[in-house]
Amino acid sequence: MTKLCSVPVISVLLVVLLLPLVNSECGYQSCNPTKPDRLNVHIVPHTHDDVGWLKTVDQYFYGANNSIQHAGVQYIIDSVVAELDKDPKRRFIYVEMAFFERWWREQDNNTRAKVKSYVDAGRLEFINGGWSMNDEACTHYNSIIDQMTLGHRFLKDTFGKCGIPKIAWHIDPFGHSREQASLFAQMGFDAFYFARISHNNRQLRRINKTMEMIWNGDPSQGGKASLMTGALYKHYDPPPAFCFDQNCNDSPIQVHLQFHIIVMHLIHLTCCKSLA
Ligand SMILES: [Zn+2]
To answer: What is the pTM assigned to this prediction?
Structure first.
C-alpha cells in the first residue's frame, strides 16, 4: 500500500522539481554559455521591419514593388527559421507583430510546432512585441497602450510565458519621450534600448560612458516608472567592421571551425610541452 501510494507522490514531486527547469529554458538563462573570467559579448541578429514606410504593409510583407525598396518580410522569417534549424547555438530576435502574426497564420502545424520549440528554448526571442514600433513624438498614450496590447496578446496567446518580451526596443522612432519610458516601465519591461539621439548627445555620452542609464520616466510614480535604458553605439548600424549585410562593404567573417579547433589543440600541446 505504501509503495503504491509513493509512486504518484514521487511523480508529483518530480513534476514539481522539473517544472522550474522546463519553464526556465527561455529567458536570459537561455543565452549561449559565458566564461566568467572574460568580457562576454553576445551578437544577436534582430529585425527592424517598418510596418509601412516607403511601401505599403502588404508590399513589405510579400516583397512587391522592390524597385522602391528591396524588402520582403515573409522571406526574412522563412530564412530565419531555416537557419535556426541548422544549429542549436543560433539565436534571433523578432520585433514587429503586424508581420509576424500574418506570417504565423500562413504556416502549417509542423512549422508552427518547430517555431514554438525555438521560442520555448529562447532561441527565437520577441522584443518590444507591439503591433509596430510606435512613434513617440505625436502619439496619444491610449494608442501606444492599444497597439502594444494587441501585439503582446498575440504573443501570450500563441507562445505563453516564453513569448512575452522583456526588452523594449525603439531602434527607429525619432526623439524619445519621457512618457514612453514611463509606459514601458509600467508595462513590465526590464530595459529599453533606442538608436536615435542627437549626434552631440551621443558623442558626449560616449566620452562620459553614459550610453546606459536609469531613466526615471515619472518621479511621481515612486520608482515604478524607472527603467534601465541604453542608446546604441552607432545609430542602428553595426559597430565598425561588423557591417556585412546588403548595404555594406566589409568582408564577411569567415571561420573554418575544424581548422581553428586543430590550431588551438596544437597551441595547447606546444604550450604544455614548453612549460614542462
Ligand atoms: Zn524604420
So the answer is: 0.81
